[in-house]
Amino acid sequence: MKATSILLALLLSLALSGFAQQSASYDSTYARKLGADFRGMRQYVMVFLKKGPTTIADTAKRSALQRAHLDNIGKLAKEGKLILAGPFMDNTELRGIYLFAVDSLEEAQQLANTDPAVVAGTLIMELHPWYGSAALMEVPKIHSKIQKNSKL
Asked: What is the pLDDT of residues 108-126, one digit of tens each?
């Protein structure tokens, strides 16, 4: 719960930075491309991935499932639906997050249900509509320029 509160506070501070003042360099074409409203914000769906009821003891099966999970993340990112994903590093019930650039919880649910770890029950999801900076849409493009190894 503490990690969730900290994450939400950080994301809220990023989101609120868009309210500061009108920028002299405002680019309406770029804003439309990112799906930004007049504040430079847009709707997303944040998915908290939590430890599921299923445990896989077999190391090879667990590794194969993790590989499939990472491959699915890459696929969703290439489709432009998954903007941000990553694990939490504190080994609690809260395992990671997805940030989907979609308009509905239902669409995010469908996308998250393509995750082999969710299908296998090693992860369960908690979905929340979220309003944040449309600049986050550029994270995948920026990330591709700074990652040395493209294989997750």
From this structure: 999 999 999 999 999 999 9
pTM surpassing 0.85?
A: no
- Quote the pLDDT of residue 148: 85
Q: In degrees rounded to 5, what are phi and psi of residue 121?
A: 85, 10
Whether the CA torsion 27, 28, 29, 33 is positive or negative: it is positive
- Tell me the C-alpha distance between 12 and 131, whole Å: 9
Q: What is the CATH number of the domain that holds 103?
A: 3.30.70.1060
Structurally, how many domains does the chain consist of? 1
Range of the domain at 55: 36-146
Q: How far apart are CA 15 and CA 34, in angstroms?
A: 15
Q: Is residue 30 part of a domain?
A: no
